[in-house]
Write a structure and sequence with these properties.
The longest helix has 23 residues. The radius of gyration is 22 Å and the shape is globular. Strand 6, helix 8 and strand 7 form a beta-alpha-beta unit. By secondary structure, the chain is of the alpha/beta class. The chain contains 13 helices and 13 strands. The strands form three sheets. A seven-stranded mixed beta sheet has the order 1-9-8-7-6-2-3, with helices on both faces. Bound molecules: 4'-deoxy-4'-aminopyridoxal-5'-phosphate. 4'-deoxy-4'-aminopyridoxal-5'-phosphate (PMP) binds next to helix 5.
């Protein structure tokens, strides 16, 4: 069994992190701040933010049922994804393995970091739905595979990966397993957060960008063992989450009753949209979904996509994505937005 030190790049393991002014004065009730070359004017924007976002983590930890030292907050979960490469993957030597189709940033981050990206196609069952097989993924792993990325619910397919298959990967792969749960609030299944204490090499990603309705503030979360989070904190930019974002996050976390309401509404609309898409004459397949979007295969995705654009309606054309020929990914909107989409789709016929 590999230790964490076996997996982390040697330069990162021995890295002496930058110590910011705000890291150093901890524990005192300071009134006069002359340590960080800030301006004394224009409160609160003149001050650097808390580098470790203690207040946000204090509110977030009980909501997620994890301790504060198991949380990393970043500039979107994209930052947490990129850090996996920078922490664990030696450029030109190591590789990561993921599924196809899936969220495109894993491959982009691999390319940016000059790390080989191996993608294993999902299977397609008799009903035409995607299936994840752990054995297929594990067959692509070798001694230089530092991490696997598994998005569940998966983007763009929509469904959760089979839990039993994910567990097989956790049991058998001797490296970092990243489970990206950006859409977790829309699924019925239990989050993999409950596995953190049993699997020290598991990283669970979530985000404020989807159900939490805060894509604009750029706040992503990584949950992992305190040892992994300590390495994240060493490598990240010192003040990676700005003052405005931390303030807005505190506000949302203090009262998230609205979010719960919105999620319930979106789940109901998702079912209505899926049923309507099933009935649409040009539909060939509506894929099951546990997220806030529906993947649908139609007769001619490009033509429908182009027409909707002319009607001022933007969806995501996934036609050129592996295994997604003629597929469109449609985000669930308000009832009015979904009606506008369906009306435009019928005008297209
Ligand atoms: N993971 C998945 C699966 C996503 O679909 C997205 C965004 N589309 C992200 C991560 C990135 O989210 P964030 O806004 O937190 O960077």
């Amino acid at each position: 069994m590999k230790t964490l030190q076996d997996l982390v790049r040697p330069n990162i393991w021995s890295l002496k992190p930058y110590s910011s002014a705000r890291d150093e004065y901890k524990g005192f009730d300071a009134k006069v701040f002359l340590d960080a070359n800030e301006s004394p004017y224009h409160e609160p924007y003149n001050r650097y933010p808390d580098p470790l976002q203690a207040q946000v983590k204090q509110l977030l930890a009980p909501i997620k049922g994890v301790s504060e030292e198991c949380i990393f907050l970043g500039n979107g979960s994209d930052e947490a994804i990129d850090l996996v490469f920078r922490i664990f993957c030696e450029p030109g030597v190591d590789n990561v393995v993921s599924i196809a189709p899936t969220y495109g940033m894993y491959e982009v981050c691999a390319d940016v970091n000059n790390v080989a990206y191996r993608s294993v196609p999902l299977s397609v069952d008799e009903a035409g739905n995607f299936r994840f097989k752990a054995d297929d993924l594990l067959a692509a792993v070798d001694g230089h595979t530092k991490a696997v990325f598994l998005c569940s619910p998966n983007n763009p397919t929509g469904e959760c990966l089979e839990r039993g298959e994910l567990m097989k990967v956790l049991e058998r792969f001797d490296g970092i397993v990243v489970v990206d749960e950006a859409y977790a609030d829309f699924m019925e299944e239990e989050s993999f957060l409950c596995m953190l204490s049993d699997y020290p090499k598991l990283i669970v990603l979530q985000t404020f960008s989807k159900a939490w309705a805060c894509a604009g503030i750029r706040l992503g979360m990584a949950f992992a063992s305190p040892e992994v989070i300590a390495i994240y904190n060493k490598v990240k930019y010192p003040y990676n989450v700005n003052v405005l974002t931390q303030r807005q996050a505190l506000e949302v976390l203090a009262d998230y009753s609205k979010i719960t309401e919105w999620v319930a509404l979106l789940k109901a609309e998702r079912e209505r949209l899926a049923v309507a898409l099933e009935k649409y004459p040009d539909t060939e397949h509506v894929f099951p979904t546990d997220a806030n979007f529906v993947l649908v295969r139609v007769k001619d995705a490009q033509a429908l996509y182009d027409y909707l654009l002319t009607q001022g309606i933007i969806i995501r054309n996934r036609h050129r994505v592996q295994l997604c020929a003629n597929c469109l990914r449609i985000t669930v909107g308000t009832p009015e937005e979904n009606d506008a989409l369906l009306e435009a789709m019928y005008r297209f016929l």
